[in-house]
Amino acid sequence: MGKGIPTADAGPTTTGNGDIKHRSKRDQKPRLLLMGLKRSGKTSISNVVFRKMTPSDTIFLDTTTTIQKEATHTFMDFQIWDLPGQIDYLDRSFDAESIFGGVGAMIWVLDALDNYMETVGHLTDTVFHLQQSYPSIKYSVFIHKIDCLTEDLRDDTVRDITQRITDDLYDVGLENPPISYHSTSIFDSSIFEAFSKVMQSLVPQLPVLESLLDTIGASCHFEKVYLFDVISKIYIASDTTSVDLRAYELCSDFINIIVDLSEVYGWHQETDFHEGEQLAALQAHGAESYVNNIKGYTLYLREINRNLSFIAISKDPAFDREKSLIDYNVGMLRDTLLKVLDYV
Ligand SMILES: Nc1nc2c(ncn2[C@@H]2O[C@H](COP(=O)(O)OP(=O)(O)OP(=O)(O)O)[C@@H](O)[C@H]2O)c(=O)[nH]1
């Protein structure tokens, strides 16, 4: 058996060492790897997205020396493994199966400010080798720290990196590698947008959800509709209109306000509702909120369950909820989530 690297489980949502039964069950959940050279930004990304760390606080992070495992229990239970950047995972003495077996997606974090020739070489070697033994892994390259580049330089850098990786892989015989590219920064919503796309690649029923969200958007006259994981702010599906960072930001801010308000004014349903019927009715409907005319937009949120909310944005500043057919459409969404995903 090959050597392994020490692993560390950190934080409240992280897999615990003590509970072996619990742990082995979680280890079967889809795994997502964060890889890349030292100081590329892997731990910062994991902390900002999943631990709500303020981006500016990431400058105090130490180098990671052990695998950090983060387990999230939201719409989809999955593990994120943050791998130390200084280790050569292709070294034959490594127990590769313990790291790469069961991986659904790998994110390669590439520091756009670095001399990226070195990391492009590591990345293409890694993809090439893993493709032989683990062909189902999906790869995403985060061209990261993009906030430090000017608009023009950004486009050139992204184009150059994409081209180099594609050429290198072509040279070794990989013509259409399953790689997606995202420009990211922890200082804006691009990191959440990119992570959303990675998570969506792990949802086999995504086309069904997207087509349903397209239908809802059209019939209710929404410009953009999302299914949001409320805690992480990752959206697990949206309609298929083009990515709109501004719409994402407005929806994300809206969730923050709703969560803050419900922390102050919310109540614990089990203790306050003694009438079973009343509680069932509330759960079937789901909490709802909408605001008209925020910077010319209407925002609409409907809770599907504790984790998942339907959120839509309309350019009509005077959205009329009663005429919108929203109840019928959200009902259809709930039915689909239940039937197709066995979820809700
Ligand atoms: N400008 C900018 N800096 C970032 C961004 N993301 C991370 N950083 C900074 O990059 C530095 C390294 O971040 P880490 O998260 O520790 O990098 P890492 O890849 O986990 O590094 P190792 O643990 O050594 O493998 C920190 O100073 C972060 O503040 C970003 O999007 N933009």
From TrEMBL:
GO terms for cellular component: endomembrane system; fungal-type vacuole membrane; Gtr1-Gtr2 GTPase complex; nucleus. It catalyses: GTP + H2O = GDP + phosphate + H(+). One of its GO terms (molecular function) is GTPase activity. CDD domains: RagC_like (cd11385). Keywords: GTP-binding, Hydrolase, Membrane, Nucleotide-binding. Residues 1-26 are annotated as: Disordered. Belongs to the GTR/RAG GTP-binding protein family. This is GTP-binding protein.
